[in-house]
Specification:
Layout (H helix, E strand, L loop, with lengths): L37 E3 L6 E3 L10 H5 L22 E2 L13 E5 L29 E4 L9 E2 L3 H9 L4 E7 L8 H7 L9 H13 L3 E6 L5 H17 L5 E5 L23 E2 L2 E2 L3 E4 L7 H9 L7 E6 L24 E5 L13 H13 L25 E2 L6 E3 L5 E7 L2 E9 L13 E4 L6 E5 L9 E8 L4 E12 L5 E7 L3 E8 L6 E3 L2 E4 L5 E6 L7 E10 L4 E12 L11 E12 L2 E9 L5 E10 L2 E8 L3 E8 L4 E10 L10 E6 L8 E5 L3 E3 L4 E7 L5 E5 L3 E2 L2 E3 L2 E6 L3 E11 L2 E14 L7 E3 L7 E5 L21 E3 L6 E18 L14 E7 L6 E6 L6 E20 L7 E3 L1 E7 L8
Parallel strand pairs: 4-5, 4-14, 5-7, 7-8, 8-9, 9-12, 12-13, 13-14, 38-45
Antiparallel strand pairs: 1-2, 3-15, 6-7, 10-11, 16-29, 17-18, 19-22, 20-21, 21-29, 22-28, 23-27, 23-29, 24-25, 24-28, 26-27, 30-31, 31-34, 32-33, 32-35, 35-36, 37-39, 39-43, 40-42, 40-44, 41-43, 44-45, 46-54, 47-49, 48-53, 49-52, 49-54, 50-51, 50-52
């Protein structure tokens, strides 16, 4: 297995440890599922929900209580896209196998919990597109604190199904060292009085309700032999009851004794979890990374009368990606063909460790991992000492088996959204639900002498969606560059046509290869000018009538010599025909999340039979025009960050057919009511509440979004009256000062007064402000817990950012600092995960700070909510106390692990200042 020098390994979470020692550990504290809080809007009658819909993450006991009917987020997690049939392309290089398969175990979302059900505004997501090389996707996730039973988010299933790839969810039982509990395994395999496995029935119920294709069972918690035997029976039970399109995949981990003992092979120890005599137990087996030779596993599969390509030899690429010591060639036999199939763990390295969420690096890494450094799947130049790329040994597959076929080359994210070549919505987004089928071949380009076109995914321009294919490089007049795009298996009739929408090229001819024909057919077309420089070229497919088209491409030519930038915006195979889509009806608003008092995110759903419908576009009426807001393949959607321009807004849902055409006559609308605008909320903070005469401080106001002005009054200050959300002032005399601030909006004003808030001292008073945390008298021995002695409470008070307090075992971590005696406290500064070099997504989100003189009676002096900063400062009205308690109400942005690198308690090492 892999060797990693993890920094403070026991405090890592969210995909930090990849099947380490055969384990992927996604650590957090133990909770058993969190329901969103809901209340009914008094004015609107629409439920107010504290968050937008999220994908599901459960524990066994919460799975048992799960029901789609009572799942508030259920509708938004459904995939409505059917799994398309695929065909194999012709071998494009001599080394490709047409039989071996690829299993991708990818961490498709950043977190186990907190994943938006239908995308969002973050462009940097794992929008995988090299589906032509993947036969099954495992949507890997799981955390001892967030959930161990995790179905794929619906948007991932949509994109996979559109490309003909089944998707399975994860059941993850972590090792005990990382939060695993044997009772979780026991709960899963428990029978009812009738001898049924209720948890198995629930897993099958969930996969059917959500529309995905089965489960990957990753059991790495040590149990007894009885439980291990029950697990085998559990798998057989699922196998006997699952629909034919579902699959159960087993990870080579536990053996019949109940011990976790990764075999790195299919052998006598683990074969019972794969095949039991004539009875299939699991459909696939993922062989742990410890394998040394694969011939014996292949032989064992043959003995069991199973296809050896149902075995997947694991290669872990999470940390090192294309620099991993094992290569795709590692699974080959002496004949150059794979002994078994290939299983890639964490190929999302391309975005995460390898890409650091940089999208340009992501696409480059995708090329290296899945294709090769040449970016041409025909190439066999890479040696065995190099990463050869998956395309080297696995033939491409394509879902293009019928017409119409339409693609806008939309990868599912972007910087803006386009419709018919016009930008209709600005701002970064991700929406994998509407990702198109991308080219089968990345890239097969043949340039005539003088041409040097290369291809990339481009967000610079698009026809529909957020992206296009950009071809750029020098071109010589009248010289052609041919690009092979898709493998297919399509028969066309006499009247069929094809079309392509391009920008920046003078002539684009259609190039098709046909079964049984030696030479490709080149068809010239008729051009039609569209908006914003786009050109549509239409081709008659009459020359290919009754033939089977096996590949589809283009031949490009310019009339002038020079640098070229060409965008491919759309391709369609099949003549547009009249189709009748189902009507939309019953548009309703099922919930809202208040972002701020000017912004709400809106849950909506509608009724439809979905006939001949590919997706639904949602529009908002603005000044008599329809403004695009979103698109989904589902019949439920969440409109994010809708701005109030009045008390109501009218929304329309319009169906889109297989040709990309809207039928507005079949759409439906509904009027949404925003919550009434109330007087603004206001909170104030100071850069310091203990200052010297003449020193400048900053007062800041946290106010509602609707606030128009903030007026300040501090008698005795310079200035005494001022306006703004952030103001600076000073004091000419020592004393104790009161601060008043008033926030004003269209509904009125709200005043806040902090009596005796600022303490101004004379420079000769001898007052010394310091970090009380690092004084020799300060100790920390009490708290909720810590991961190990090197990450205990005192490390939060040592003044260093290379140490920390970490607690991954508590629901709401807390710790207490004992200052040794009563002292004067003026404020605090907390240094969270990002300040220590970890992900800012692990920064503490919500925390309270309380003080006490006796350690029993506490007064809360800070309530910080929705923090995202790496370091956070909180000034308070002076208080005398000996004990200070830090309570993490939400220890991460999504998870529950405390990571406090430093906690400064700012004050004076004396008493008698308060009220002085």
């Amino acid at each position: 297995m892999k060797q990693k020098n993890w920094k403070n390994v026991f405090c890592y979470s969210a995909a930090a440890i990849a099947l380490a020692l055969g384990t992927n550990v996604l650590l957090a504290s133990t909770v058993y599922g969190e329901a969103s809080e809901t209340r009914i809007g008094q004015e609107t009658g629409i439920p107010i929900v504290d968050r937008t819909p999220e994908s599901t993450a459960l524990f066994p006991e919460t799975l048992l209580n799960w029901s789609f009917k009572t799942d508030a987020d259920g509708l938004f997690n459904v995939s409505k896209v059917p799994l398309r049939t695929r065909v194999k392309g012709e071998k494009i290089n001599v080394d490709q196998s047409t039989d071996a398969k690829v299993l991708s175990i990818a961490i498709v979302n950043r977190h186990t919990k907190g994943t938006p059900s239908q995308g969002g505004t973050d462009k940097a997501i794992y929008n995988f597109t090299n589906w032509q090389y993947v036969d099954t996707l495992v949507a890997w996730a799981g955390s001892s604190g967030e959930g161990i039973i995790v179905p794929p988010s619906g948007d991932v299933t949509d994109s996979a199904h559109r490309n003909g790839v089944p998707v399975v969810g994860t059941v993850f039982f972590p090792p005990e060292a990382y939060g695993g509990k044997s009772e979780w395994v026991e709960q899963l395999v428990q029978k009812d009085r009738k001898g049924n496995f209720p948890m198995a029935d629930k897993l099958l119920e969930m996969s059917k309700a959500y529309g995905f294709d089965g489960w990957f069972i990753n059991q790495e918690t040590n149990v007894d032999a009885q439980t291990a035997s029950a697990m085998k029976e559990f798998l057989s039970y699922m196998q006997a009851r699952k629909p034919k399109n579902q699959q159960v995949i087993w990870y080579d981990s536990m053996i019949p004794s109940g011990n976790v003992a990764w075999q790195g092979a299919l052998n006598e120890q683990n074969q019972g979890y794969f095949q039991d005599g004539k009875k299939r137990v699991s459909d696939k087996l993922f062989i742990d990374f410890r394998w040394r030779g694969l011939e014996e596993s292949r032989t064992k599969a043959a003995e069991l009368k199973r296809d050896p390509y149902d075995l997947f030899a694991g290669i872990d690429v999470q940390a090192n990606g294309v620099n991993s010591w094992r290569k795709p060639s590692s699974i080959l036999g002496s004949n150059g063909q794979p002994f078994v199939s290939l299983g890639l763990y964490a190929p999302d390295w391309t975005l995460r460790d390898g890409g650091q969420y940089d999208i340009d690096r992501y696409w480059e890494n995708e090329k290296l991992l899945w294709i090769n450094p040449q970016g041409d799947p025909r190439s066999v130049a890479s040696t065995k000492n190099e990463w050869q790329g998956v395309s080297r040994y696995f033939v491409e597959k394509s879902p293009i088996t019928s017409t119409p076929f339409l693609t806008n080359f939309n990868v599912g994210n972007g910087d803006a959204f386009y419709q018919n070549g016009t930008k209709v919505k600005d701002g970064t987004f991700n929406n994998r639900s509407i990702q198109d089928v991308m080219p089968t071949y990345r890239w097969v380009i043949d340039n005539d002498a003088g041409n040097q076109l290369g291809a990339t995914i481009s967000y610079e321009d698009a026809f529909n969606g957020g992206s296009s294919i950009k071809l750029s490089g020098p071109m010589t007049a009248e010289k052609t560059s041919s690009i092979k795009l898709y493998a297919s298996q399509v028969k066309v009739s006499t009247s069929e046509t094809a079309s392509v929408v391009t920008k920046g090229v003078d002539e684009a001819s259609l190039v098709i290869e046909m079964k049984g024909k030696d030479k490709p057919l080149v068809i010239k077309g008729n051009q039609q000018m569209l908006e914003n420089g786009w050109v549509k070229t239409t081709y008659s497919l009459k020359p290919a009538v009754c033939q089977t088209i096996t590949t589809i491409g283009l031949s490009l030519k310019n009339t002038q010599t020079g640098p070229a930038t060409i965008h491919l915006g759309q391709m369609m195979i099949g003549k547009e025909k009249a189709t009748s889509v189902s009507s939309v009806s019953g548009v309703r608003f099922t919930g809202k999340t208040i972002v701020d008092d000017l912004t709400e995110s809106i849950r909506m759903s509608w009724d439809t039979k979905g006939k001949n419908t590919v997706s639904y576009r949602i529009y908002r009426e603005v000044d008599g025009q329809l403004q695009f807001e979103g698109e989904t393949a589902n019949n439920a959607y969440t409109l994010l960050n809708q701005k109030r321009t009045g008390d109501i807004a009218n929304y329309q849902v319009i169906p889109v057919d297989y040709y990309g055409r809207e039928d507005r006559t079949k759409g439906a609308s509904a009027v949404y009511t925003f919550e009434s605008l109330k007087k603004p909320e206001i909170g104030i903070n100071a850069s310091s509440t203990l200052i010297s005469v003449g020193e400048t401080i900053t007062l800041s106001a946290t106010v509602s979004k609707s606030t128009e002005t903030v007026n300040w009054e501090v008698l005795g200050a310079t200035p005494q009256e001022t306006s703004g959300t952030e103001v600076s002032l000073s004091f000419a005399k020592a004393g104790i000062y009161t601060v008043k601030a008033t926030a004003v909006n269209a509904s009125g004003e709200t005043e806040i007064i902090k009596e005796n808030y600022l303490h101004v001292y004379d420079q000769n008073s001898g007052i010394k402000i310091e970090n009380l945390s690092v004084l020799p008298t300060t100790t920390a021995t009490q708290g909720s817990g810590y991961t190990n002695e090197r990450e205990s409470y005192p490390f939060a008070l040592d003044g260093h950012l290379n140490t920390k307090w970490c607690d991954n075992g508590s629901d709401k971590p807390w710790m207490i600092a004992d200052l040794g005696a009563q002292k004067t406290i003026a404020g605090f500064e907390l240094f969270h995960a990002g300040a220590g070099g970890e992900s800012s997504e692990w920064n503490t989100r919500d925390y309270d700070i309380s003080v006490s003189s006796d350690g029993n009676n506490w007064m809360t002096v800070v309530q910080r909510r929705n923090n995202t900063e790496d370091s956070s400062k909180d000034a308070i009205k002076l208080v005398e106390a000996r004990y200070v308690k830090l309570s993490l109400e939400k220890a991460e942005q999504n998870g529950k692990t405390a990571r406090i690198y430093d906690w400064q308690i700012i004050g004076v090492n004396q008493m008698g200042i308060v009220g002085g």
